[in-house]
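User: I've been trying to design a sequence by hand for this structure and keep getting stuck. Would you show me what you'd pick, starting by listing the structure so we're on the same page?

Assistant: Good idea, let's start from the same input. This is the structure you sent:
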């Protein structure tokens, strides 16, 4: 205290200073209360603006140290008569004094969150001032996406979900671990998005990586197997480029229970707004078939999602190509194959062989019959009198065109070339009942008396009497009937010779 200042003046100065301080505090309290961001009304307004919805609480608690609030039974609605957009069992919001000055929320934790995906009917203008959320946590949350299906909506259950710097001026980061419904498996994804594009949210930038473990393909009913995949993505929500690797130890057709391993590298484009997928390239190996594919998986005019794929096989084995679609333990023939195929796979629970449709051209080299009984039968029917045992069927060449619809493979042309014999067939093969109905012509320049190999051996016994009557004929109408397990070879008596 200054020795020159009277005590009365000192007391008066302290009183004035104290009064000013009290006034400042009082004004601060009034202003803080007026502009306090965690009042029930302010929080409802902020949350409603962010979700384009109206918000209600069953219970609301202010928290001053640290600043924030707790709301219970939180409900977001866009349509008063419809289902809620979001429900949250308990919502905790927390900040600090420095954060309040910077319009930052330190933490938002949503416990028991359930989100019902709904499209926004009209775009509202974003608030002029948005609050940045440093960390958003919504563990054990559930996202429900409606769909027209007897199985009900798609449900994504998130075990771990975290976003940092939400609504900030820079990119936001995210990490999630969730149960993927189609196909069902554990999906881990992390990356960045933003800055958020308020005028066109689908154009917001997005990048990251994903890891899908042992997802069950059985949800598609017609196939089975466990797929694992990992890769990265980059682009925007409505134009996302994905590069990755996928493998299935045994991709099986459910109706035949036959499967082979699949291993592939993929490059696809995903429209997150429509869920349409453009398959730019899939390069893989199915069994021993080297495959190169491209196409789309998108909704057609009736709104159903359909896969349309172009598949090329420059090198493969026909026994692996056929194996998943036949009920017998092994394919009818073996040999080197190459083909081009257009495949359409619609949705639904119908058997894979019934719902798939395709058109294909194919070329099989060094082909031989594999079925033991068939091979022995075909070799033995033309066995020479002094021959010690049946010969193995000689390799042949198959070329043709086939289309598959409604479980029936229709061959518009099937050419079988074997040394000096040529057979040209047309007809059908039933994928579900394994029935054969093929008709054509066998052209040969030699008698079949001692034919023990190739296509001539197949028909030797049934058409040799015809050659004895007409030794100079070189073209014979033939047919193949019966089933895959018990084929029947004979003359086509319904056709004039």
């Amino acid at each position: 205290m200054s020795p020159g200042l009277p005590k009365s003046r000192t007391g008066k100065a302290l009183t004035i200073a104290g009064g000013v301080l009290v006034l400042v505090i009082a004004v601060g309290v009034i202003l803080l209360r007026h502009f306090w961001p965690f009042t029930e009304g302010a929080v409802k307004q902020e949350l409603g603006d962010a979700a384009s919805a109206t918000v209600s609480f069953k219970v609301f608690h202010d928290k001053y140290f640290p600043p924030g609030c707790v709301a219970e039974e939180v409900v977001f609605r866009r349509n008063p008569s419809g289902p809620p957009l979001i429900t949250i069992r308990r919502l905790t919001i927390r900040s600090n004094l420095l954060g309040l000055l910077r319009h930052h929320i330190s933490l938002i934790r949503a416990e028991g969150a359930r989100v019902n995906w709904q499209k926004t009917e009209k775009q509202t203008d974003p608030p002029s001032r948005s609050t940045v959320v440093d960390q958003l946590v919504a563990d054990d949350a559930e996202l429900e996406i409606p769909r027209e299906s007897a199985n009900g909506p798609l449900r994504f259950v998130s075990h771990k979900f975290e976003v940092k710097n939400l609504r900030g001026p820079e990119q936001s980061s995210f990490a999630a671990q969730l149960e993927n419904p189609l196909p069902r498996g554990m999906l881990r994804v992390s990356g960045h998005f933003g800055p958020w594009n308020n005028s066109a949210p689908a154009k917001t930038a997005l990048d990251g990586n994903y890891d899908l473990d042992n997802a069950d393909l059985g949800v598609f009913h017609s196939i089975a197997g466990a797929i694992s995949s990992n890769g990265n993505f980059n682009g925007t929500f409505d134009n996302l480029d994905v590069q990755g690797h996928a493998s299935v130890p045994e991709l099986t057709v459910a109706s035949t229970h036959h499967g082979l391993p699949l291993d592939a590298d993929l490059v696809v484009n995903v429209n997150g707004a429509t869920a349409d997928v453009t398959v730019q390239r899939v390069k893989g190996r199915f069994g021993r078939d080297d495959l190169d594919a491209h196409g789309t998986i998108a909704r057609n005019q009736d709104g159903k999602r359909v896969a349309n794929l172009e598949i090329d096989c420059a090198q493969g084995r026909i026994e692996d190509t056929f194996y998943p679609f036949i009920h017998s333990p092994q394919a009818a023939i073996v040999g080197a194959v190459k083909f081009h195929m257009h495949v359409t796979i619609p949705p639904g629970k119908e058997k894979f062989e019934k719902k798939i449709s395709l058109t294909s051209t194919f070329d099989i080299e060094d082909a031989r019959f594999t079925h033991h009984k068939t091979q022995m039968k075909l070799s033995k029917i033309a066995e020479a009198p002094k021959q010690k045992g049946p010969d193995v069927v000689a390799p042949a060449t198959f070329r043709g065109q086939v289309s598959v619809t409604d479980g029936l493979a229709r061959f518009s042309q099937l050419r079988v070339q074997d040394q000096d014999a040529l057979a040209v067939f047309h007809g059908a093969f039933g994928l579900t009942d394994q029935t054969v109905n093929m008709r054509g012509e066998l052209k040969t320049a030699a008698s079949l008396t001692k034919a023990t190999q190739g296509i001539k051996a197949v028909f030797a016994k049934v058409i040799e009497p015809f050659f004895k009557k007409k030794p100079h004929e070189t073209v014979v109408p033939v047919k193949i009937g019966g089933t895959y397990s018990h084929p029947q070879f004979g003359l086509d008596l319904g056709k004039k010779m």
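That's my pick for every position. To get oriented when you compare it with your attempt: The radius of gyration is 36 Å. The helical segments are 7-35, 40-51, 97-101, 318-322, 352-355, 372-380, 454-469.
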